[in-house]
Design goal:
The protein has two domains: 176 residues, no CATH class; 88 residues, no CATH class. The chain is built from 13 helices and no strands. It is an all-alpha fold.
Length: 295
């Protein structure tokens, strides 16, 4: 298939770019600094102190990965199509036996491979360091965390490439991607609270209804969906993972409103669907607009 050829070329081109190595070094540094700190503190204390597993490290890092991985993915993907469109190489690419669908799919896969290399580099290096600390290495949870982080990177690559396919210039694509990133990272919680407060004022809803509305809106944020899936891996209970998304003072009330179990539409399967929504829908919209664009 020709989209594979586009993906291979895109990845090879990225290997020659300094961005791949800069981002890989950044992720390795950020993700490996805590285990390195633990290692050197233990060495200074005369050896391992024992106690704890690497799950504590993963819990500590989930917020950092939920912030850094989307940013890396956006930097890699926001100009995937628009840069070739502005330089004129897109017309040359389309003169070969590649359709516009092939270009978009190939860009998503090629840029995802670039992000994946950066993420895996950080995880592998951190794992090596963690093996020399006193923390018990929970291999299964570590692997699941790595896979979820790779999925988060794929989702944001798809989101940014979809926007790049729909935008006419790299500047417009960058503005749209940054606006969404800020909305997810900074503004989403405030928006959720405002919607819930407005619904409560308008309809005087019960606690259970307000909790479900609040949780649904929270989970529509792909970074929140990622974090709660990580919490499920670490806590091993879906209800506890969902309760992590609420203030500690209201968690008992929410747990009581849920009756001690998570509704099926907040289960891990549905949360995964909410996360993948941000991969498939932007790519589909980007292809739809791109196919009708005058190049």
């Amino acid at each position: 298939m020709t989209w594979r050829a586009v993906a291979r070329k895109d990845f090879r081109d990225s290997l020659r770019s300094r961005w791949l190595w800069v981002l890989t070094a950044l992720f390795v540094l950020v993700f490996s600094l805590p285990p390195l700190l633990v290692f050197y503190l233990e060495m200074g204390a005369g050896g391992g102190r024992g106690g704890g597993t690497t799950d504590a490290f993963l819990y500590l890092m989930k917020q950092g990965t939920a912030t850094l991985v989307p940013l890396i993915s956006i930097v890699i993907g926001y100009a995937a199509v628009t840069r070739e469109r502005e330089s004129g190489t897109l017309k040359l690419l389309l003169s070969l036996p590649h359709s516009r669908d092939d270009v978009v799919f190939g860009k998503v896969l090629g840029r995802s491979a670039v992000v994946g290399v950066s993420i895996l580099g950080g995880f592998v290096f951190a794992a090596v360091v963690l093996l020399f600390t006193s923390l018990e290495f929970a291999a299964v949870n570590y692997l699941l965390f790595a896979l979820l982080t790779l999925l988060l990177g794929l989702v944001f690559v798809g989101l940014s490439v979809g926007i790049s396919a729909a935008a006419s210039t790299s500047r417009r694509s960058m503005v749209a991607c940054v606006a969404l990133y800020i909305s997810f990272i900074v503004l989403w919680s405030t928006l959720t609270n405002q919607i819930v407060a407005a619904l409560n004022d308008q309809f005087d809803m019960e606690v259970a209804g307000l909790a479900k509305v609040s949780l649904f809106i929270k989970l529509l944020n792909p970074t929140t969906a990622y974090k709660t899936l990580v919490d499920t891996v670490l806590a091993e209970k879906q209800l506890n993972a969902r309760l992590e998304l609420f203030n500690q003072f209201v968690r008992p009330t929410v747990a009581q409103a849920f009756g001690g179990s998570v509704p099926f539409y907040f289960s891990d399967v549905f949360v995964m669907a909410y996360l993948l929504f941000w991969l498939f829908v932007p790519v589909a919209i980007g292809i739809f607009v791109f196919e009708r664009a005058d190049l």
